[in-house]
Design brief:
Blueprint lengths: L1 H10 L11 E6 L2 H12 L4 E6 L5 H12 L3 E7 L10 H6 L3 E5 L3 E2 L2 E2 L5 E5 L3 E5 L5 H5 L3 E7 L1 H16 L5
Parallel strand pairs: 2-3, 3-4
Antiparallel strand pairs: 1-9, 2-7, 5-6, 7-8, 8-9
Helix pairs in contact: 2-3
């Protein structure tokens, strides 16, 4: 029985509701996590701030562009090195009028760090975070997790970090 449950968890995302539906947890590979993120983007009313290491997912990029078209203020912060490939949605998003910046890394021991975050804050009250980059691989083939938190106090902490990263980011 335990083996069957483990196998099921490996192939399907799980949504765990806790604290009165404040927290939802998804595991990939599965489209349930992708759909949950798109649903939150589609429900955005005023703002979407995204800090993500790698962004190659066309469905997520399209949802972001639709949100902008609805009048939602959108800011995207990407790692500059991770988004130098032909699959990055940086140019696609910029061409749609999305405010996109590239993170300036910290430097230590003569090495550059990464902007390795994977989070979004929606309307100052919803946080999307976890291990998943916003890539097709994260939802189709990788073992990842996505956590959606509906709490203003948590969103405030993430928003503060986003603003810090945004202020020291590269305008291009």
């Amino acid at each position: 029985m335990f083996k069957k449950i483990t196998i099921l968890l490996a192939f399907f995302a799980i949504s765990i509701s806790a604290l009165g539906r404040d927290i939802y947890v998804y595991f990939t590979p599965s489209y349930a996590a992708l759909d949950a993120i798109i649903d939150r983007i589609n429900s955005a009313k005023s703002s979407i701030d995204v800090a993500v290491y790698d962004f190659t997912s066309r469905p997520l990029a399209k949802a972001i562009i639709k949100a902008k078209a609805r009048g939602v203020k959108v800011r995207i912060l990407l790692d500059r090195k991770a988004n130098q490939n032909k699959y990055s949605k940086e140019t696609f998003l910029r061409n749609a009028g999305i405010d996109v910046r590239l993170a300036i890394p910290h430097v230590a021991w003569d090495r550059e760090g990464l902007m390795h975050n994977k989070f979004a804050v929606i309307d100052g009250k919803v946080v999307i975070t976890g291990s998943a980059n916003w890539t097709a691989s994260a939802f189709k083939i990788n073992d990842e997790n996505v956590i959606i938190i509906n709490r203003v106090d948590i969103a405030n902490v993430y928003e503060k970090e986003f603003k810090y990263l945004w202020k020291r980011s590269l305008l291009r």
